[in-house]
Design goal:
This protein has about 220 residues and is mainly α. The chain contains nine helices and two strands, in the order αααααββαααα.
Length: about 220
Amino acid sequence: MNIGTKIKTARVEAGLTQEKSAEILGVSRQTVSNWENEKSYPDIISVIKMSDIYNVSLDKLLKEDTAVNGSNYLDYLENSTNTVKSKTKLSKIVLFSVYIFIWAVSEIVFWFFTEPSDTMGYSLMFVWIIMPVTTFTVSFITGKNGFLKRFKWLLPLLLGIMFMLVPYSTLTFSNMTAFHTFRWPDFPMLPIGAAISYAGIIAGLLTERKLNKIKNK
């Protein structure tokens, strides 16, 4: 039995129409029809979703498939999975690069464009607005998209340290240089940054869970 027939059989046995399946899967009805008629093929994420909503095992859906463009469907899925992994990896790199870029901008603005009389404005803008918003946003996207898997809970520690270093490497360091003194970082800033990050991750996880519930209705 080929993959299209298996998908159609599983859908029918689950008592779902193409329209309802498409709604749950987040695709068009025509896409589901194309899969079942083998005019196109679902990627690995769609196959996993179908396994869940049709209540059939992945093994039952995938084994003994016919060839697809000279290779079997499992090869097609492997290529699809590799593509998804590559896109996910790129998304992670872009996301955390943006965070580092904004952090670097906060340093550059202070040391090259801020006058002594502007330090209060700088502190308000970067320390208490831009960096908290950036920390929350990066953490939210991480939680919503499942980046870093179980290691995502270590992200708040890293972002908390980065958050703490913003005022230390600018305002505090400038003060130390001016008065030839040494001061430790303001350590309470670390848990504040970590708390913002934790809130972002939890908000992202809850948002993803809510979206999945809506799709599965």
